[in-house]
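Entry 14. Ran structure prediction on the chain below.
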Amino acid sequence: MDREPINFYIDTMAREASFYMPYEHTHSLIELYYLQRGECKFVVNSACISLKAGDLLLIRPGYRHSTTYTGQDASIRTNLFIDPRSLPRQLLELVPQIQMMCAESCRIVLDKYSLLTLQELFRKITNEQISPGPYAKVTETLYVCEIFMLLIEHGQISHNIFVPIRDMESDIRLALHYIDTMYPSPLTLQDIAKKLQLNTSYFSHKFHVATGYTFKEYLNNVRIRNAANQLLVTDDSITRIALNCGFSSSNYFKDLFKKSTGMTPREYRRKAAVSNKLGYGHTPEE
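Output, structure tokens:
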């Protein structure tokens, strides 16, 4: 039996103050990012916003984003990923403000009582994923609908809150755009340097200084991040995902994925399926 698609996925994690995600990534899901403790800088489409404890950010599907934690102490954040297709059509028709809110990435400010309600709904969704009842999928859908109604009724929604990043030169920003859009291709340092009309050695050094990563490291990070998303939202085989994300060798992909995440691709997919309890049956064979 094929796995059903994962409609919702919630994840709470502590991040050290030194955690830094230097590359922006994309996925096809609505992302609700709630910073429970700490401080961070969130970058969306090469524009940034500073967040503090209690801030809630909605990231539109397809928008590139990354986080850097800036406080002195460890941070705790909760991410709720939502497949837009899983939202009930009747809800979207009755409350068109939901689609308006999700049309662009935005910050949502809630009062302390609404934040407590949000945290409780996050807790309930997490519990459903860990110990699902017979109607877990329906129950989680109801909780997610309740979250959206909470945001619409009690949230102060701000869309124009991102500040463009100006300290990165245009050729590096263009290189990052090429990598983000062309990562499935057999991309090389020479290819990008040629597109930018730069000497390969000069571009390699400039890229490393600007991002803190070599070109190959950065490209692999982007490919791994996109592969992780495909493991969650598709039934494609691990070999197919490796090829779709630009890896010519599935074995190299598996080794790199485990080094990056601490799990093999199969373990990562199985953990997500078990924690969500929205996928059943076998995992596609490699």
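The first helix runs from residue 89 to 94. Will compare against last week's run tomorrow.
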